[in-house]
What does this fold into?
Amino acid sequence: MVKRELDEVSGTETTGHEWDGIKELDNPMPRWWLWAFIISIVWGVIYMAAYPAWPLITEATKGFLGYSSRAELADTMNAVQVSRQKYINSINALSLEEIRNDSELARFAYAGGKSAFAVNCSQCHGSGAAGSAGYPNLNDDNWLWGGSLTDIQTTISHGIRFEQDDDTRFSEMPAFGGDEILDRTQIGQVADYVLSLSKRQHDFENATAGAKTYADNCAACHGDTGQGDREQGAPQLSNVLWLYGNEKADIIAQISRPKHGVMPAWGERLDATTIKQLTIYVHALGGGE
Ligand code: HEC
Ligand code: HEC
It folds into this structure.
């Protein structure tokens, strides 16, 4: 072996490499570094034996611990399924009233209803169920067709004016203008009368003249004082909430050629558990009775 040159200052051997007169000393690796290096190699070998590591043709080596992330996922999913199933069974077995009175179950149903709502209902009712023109707000305590648990369940199951469902909720306001039941003057007068019911600004003389037209043509559905009728889905006219707008022109348009909201029936499309969860959710939104 060639005797290597010693560095004069430190007395350490040099590696023989030299750049511009600067020589590289051949110091040994620090001990701690060497050990860390060896331990990590040992660790790597054990790890490769214990866990799936070497890719083979169809799958990797299994490792002696038999671990697989797929199996772990399946286990977690199973555990969730089992705990959900307990709640789902209870929802199927209990009445809406009983579900609502069991706070834990009601919370589960609410969460399920909320996500089903986001998928099936929000495109019409809005993501927070606040509605928009023609689509009722479901957060308030003003109901067209009723706000009890069973009312809401019926509405969701059978829809509204959804002709494919024999039990759908149905009623239609006559087209007083289009079918010439009332003339334009009468429609203008009754519109002022409708405005007066909710104490909005109106023409007093017109409204007085419209009162009789209202009693003869409208009270049967909307009530003597505009309180509405849930049997027929006729909105209350004496409050500040309007499905189709609160301006006189909106009201005249509705009397002349009424719009009729249609909501699809969900009884065939969604399972009974989901409908119950939706009912609990809608009922809890604020205005459930
Ligand atoms: C295609 C649009 C549309 C979809 C989707 C829809 N709705 Fe409706 N919904 C309506 C309309 C329109 C009305 C009001 C009908 C009327 O004028 O009487 C309504 C009314 C209701 C009512 C009655 C409110 C009251 O005041 O009595 C409830 C409850 C309701 N919807 C719940 C739901 C739920 C829950 C879903 C999802 C499963 C849903 N809706 C999906 C259009 C829709
Ligand atoms: C056969 C029952 C019936 C009769 C009669 C009737 N309506 Fe209606 N009316 C309804 C229904 C149902 C609606 C709701 C339509 C919908 O939900 O899409 C409605 C809606 C309205 C609205 C819209 C309310 C809102 O919140 O935007 C007004 C205004 C109105 N009616 C006024 C009248 C007036 C005025 C008369 C008499 C000239 C009359 N209606 C007669 C059933 C009736």
Q: What stands out?
A: The two ends are 99 Å apart (CA to CA). The mean pLDDT is 94. Residues 33 and 282 are 65 Å apart (CA to CA). Residues 117, 120-121, 123-125, 134-136, 138, 143-145, 152, 155-156, 160, 233, 261-264, 266, 278, 282 surround heme C (ligand 1) (CB under 6 Å).
